[in-house]
Amino acid sequence: MEKRPFGSTGAHVPLLSFGAQRIVDEHNCTEEQAIQIVNRAIDEGITYYDTAPSYSKGQSEERLGKALALHKRRDEVWIATKTNDRTRDGSLRLLEDSLKRLQTDHVEEWRLHNIMKMEELEQCFAKGGALEALIQAKEQGMIKHISISGHTNPQVQLEAIDRYPFDSALVALSAADHLVYSFAHEFLPKANEKGIAVIGMKVMALGRLAPWYEKALRYTLSLPISTAIVGMESMEQLEQNLAIAKNFEPMSDLEQLDFLKEIMHLANPDVLKWKSTDWVSGEWYVR
């Protein structure tokens, strides 16, 4: 599988990465299945694993931790987790719990989770805010890289990277996302200019791009990003994603344009819920 530079960190990651949000009971994935899926993914060269304490109340982190500990594979992977608390103290408590569930003394990457509004960004950057926790955790060796994520408004993440030299950013980069508040159009060029690793997410737009599965994944992988995380809750999904990634050929500009025309009707609040006003309450991602 193709590997790409992870921004200016000196690390390289495979173009396909593992979204661990779905290896949970909520998505009908048992613990035994989760352990099998994660280890199969590692066997096939997937080394980057994204999770968060808010995913199924910690079950995602817990299962990822068990999968790695059971087969002693912690040193083979890059773990990224998050804080959805906007304060220093609250974030440090979340990190402590995350490390316990993940059965490790550090993670490679810790990010501010889903900063949707400028007000949230201000909270994180204020005295006693979450950014202080990330900086402190890096100084103490609990994390290696500092990150931010956003689904909604690329202007928020642009402001963030102007204020602080984040190592990476996880942003919504599905084909449908290209058509409304486009991170691909607005955020990617500036992030690349600054040497910030960009990780694509929402690749399938919560399943709405499933009828165009291969095109949807190829579209995101064709962008100038380091990697794309895809949620996987079954061995079948893992194998499908691996097949596309291993045989990946970038979309031409014309192919991308044709695909965007084909799915243009999906650029609405019912599909892109994370960009709708109803969802900018900050509560939807706690699930």
Task: Report on the architecture of this protein.
This is Aryl-alcohol dehydrogenase-like predicted oxidoreductase. Residues 16-216 form the NADP-dependent oxidoreductase domain. InterPro entries: AKR2_Oxidoreductase (IPR053135), NAD(P)_OxRdtase_dom_sf (IPR036812), NADP_OxRdtase_dom (IPR023210). It comes from Paenibacillus qinlingensis. It is built from eleven helices and ten strands. It has 287 residues and is α/β, with parallel strands linked by helices. An eight-stranded parallel barrel has the order 3-4-5-6-7-8-9-10, surrounded by four helices. A hairpin with a 6-residue loop joins strand 1 and strand 2 (12-14). Helix 3 (88-102) packs across helix 5. The longest helix has 15 residues, at 88-102. The protein starts with a strand and ends in a 25-residue tail after the last helix.
Which features does this protein show?
NAD(P)_OxRdtase_dom_sf; alpha/beta; globular; single chain; 10 strands; 287 residues; 11 helices; 38% helix
- Strand order within the widest sheet? 3-4-5-6-7-8-9-10
The shape, in one word, is: globular
Main sheet overview: 8 strands, parallel, barrel
Give the uncertain stretches in residue-range form.
282-287
Structural class: alpha/beta
Indicate the proportion of strand residues.
15-25%
Helical content, roughly? 25-40%
Which assembly state applies to the chains in this document?
single chain
Overall mean confidence score, pLDDT: 95
User: Please, how many helices?
Assistant: 11
- First CA to last CA: what distance? 32 Å
Number of strands: 10
- How are helices and strands ordered from N to C? EEEHEHEHEHHEHEHHEHEHH
Rg = 18 Å
Domain NADP-dependent oxidoreductase: 16-216
Organism: Paenibacillus qinlingensis
Protein name: Aryl-alcohol dehydrogenase-like predicted oxidoreductase
Pfam families: Aldo_ket_red (PF00248)
